[in-house]
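Hi everyone,

Forwarding the result from last night's run.
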Amino acid sequence: MISDLAARLSDWRVLINNASVFRHDDSSHLQPQVLKEAVSVNAESPVRMTQEFLAKSRSRQGRRVIQVTDQKLINPNPDFLSYTMSKHALAATIAMMSMVRSDPRDRIYGLAPGASLPSFDQQDQEHQVSGRLNLLGRLTDPAELAEAALFLTKGWLASGETLLVDSGLHLTPTPRDVLFMARAGH
């Protein structure tokens, strides 16, 4: 897909890798199939797509890759172990791939959101509660993530940087995923 698009687009400047799987397992019971799928979808695929994009796409202004990670990189908890491990793996590649850019105008960034949309099997009311378990006590609007991505496309930050957009959730240590904290009445 990346090769085909690169061949057809004469000025392809931005690739955003946002797809991911979010299946439950935890630190007390790693599920090998969940881990295999998480690493494949959340880490390996974005890296392969990035490599192909940087090898074949063309842009007159420098290219941007935005890897969507998670605030769990800064604020881990024992839930969703495979998901979190795979997002840590992806986050590690941001700095590594920044070191081998062939064009100094290119940038590789991370965008680390917090709870902004219902996740896993959440009901709307649970999402309303869990999404406010952050320093600002409010839901992070998905439009804020889009605005942050647009900011990153400008290339004003040094390559390798990660921007957190989570209403301060990464600064609020949580013993469990906010999904389960909301269910427990926190």
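Helices lie at 2-8, 32-56, 81-99, 124-130, 142-153, 178-183.

Cheers,
N.
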